Amino acid sequence: MNEYLKKRKELAMIMERYLECLVEKNTGRLSLADRYRATYNGIEGKAGDNELWHNILVIQKRQTFLDPETGEIVFVGVGSNEVRERRELFPIDDYLTYKSFAFSIRLKVENGLVTEIEELAKTGRSRYFFCMPEEIHLPDLMFEMCVPEEERSSREELIEQADLYWRGSFGPEGPDIMHIHPDCQRTENGYQTTNHSNSFRGDFKWNADLKGDTGMHTSIPEKYITYPIIDPARGIVISYATMVTKLDRGPTHYFRICEVFLVRDGCIKRILAMFPALDNDGGWINE
Domain with 208 in it: what CATH number? Predict the structure, then answer.
């Protein structure tokens, strides 16, 4: 086993243990650094002390992404507090109400220990996004396929594609700067957001809410954008960002985004987005 594969294996096993600890409500088995930082939907706290940990009994759908260079792992999944065989071995907070979660977990690992935990979770669905968490399709096997070596984008080129996406979606340059594959599809918390307004770019061209035509002014400040996973072999780049929506009349809204991009032929071909609405900016700034 070469060194690169050893590093991928180490990261995979750390996430596997983390997920088992989540279901078992056992933070004692986590490989935590003496000083670590953990947030749940932007609120800082202790590992394991949040709604997700207090309620999930089973993780039904899973997909994991690894990057040995950054030492980071991103997991996206669906879990609930309802076990099919009704063997509830671990305590949960809510015994009366069915809860399902669409969630993502980002771990940063240094010297075999977890130094950062960012958990984002959503129950139910947003208005007009017609997909409940249990209806989300995972894993998406297109993200598992390796790109032929002669067709691979470099790490820098993968980041460039995601950067153009953010700038084209919310910046003054507009959506035409994005490099979009003709087969591109995008899902947001499981709901397909493409093919609604004539083209992929049409979702951004004609979305008045994003353009501020309805008193809503949406942006993604650069200080919130990070790239924890870059995988040239599979054509994957994952970006975290915070979307800020300011209303002419009303409060400011925040959305912390985990967006998984698949790049083929130098263009974005698939996007898997998972994110909840928050009461804060997410708590993570790219310094």
Answer: 3.10.450.50
Residue 144 lies in a domain: no
Q: What is the pLDDT of residues 33-80, one digit of tens each?
A: 999 999 999 999 999 999 999 999 999 999 999 999 999 999 999 999
The CA radius of gyration of the chain, in Å to the nearest whole number, is 19
CA atoms within 13 A on the CB side of 40: 12
Nearest CA to 232 out of 169, 110, 147, 140 is that of 147
pLDDT classification of 204: cutoffs 50, 70, 90: low
* 268-271 CB contacts, 8 Å cutoff, 24+ apart: 268/161, 268/162, 268/165, 268/178, 268/179, 268/180, 268/181, 268/184, 269/142, 269/181, 269/183, 269/184, 269/235, 270/140, 270/142, 270/143, 270/184, 270/185, 270/186, 271/165, 271/184, 271/185, 271/186, 271/187
pTM above 0.90, yes or no: yes
> Domain containing 226: what range?
149-278
Overall number of domains in the chain: 2
206-253 residue pLDDT tens: 555 555 566 677 888 899 999 999 999 999 999 999 999 888 777 888
The three-state secondary structure class of 7 is helix
Closest CA to 77 of 90, 64, 62, 66: 62
Per-chain mean pLDDT for the chain: 89
* Residues whose CB falls within 8 Å of the CB of residue 144, separated by 6 or more in sequence, listed in order: 234
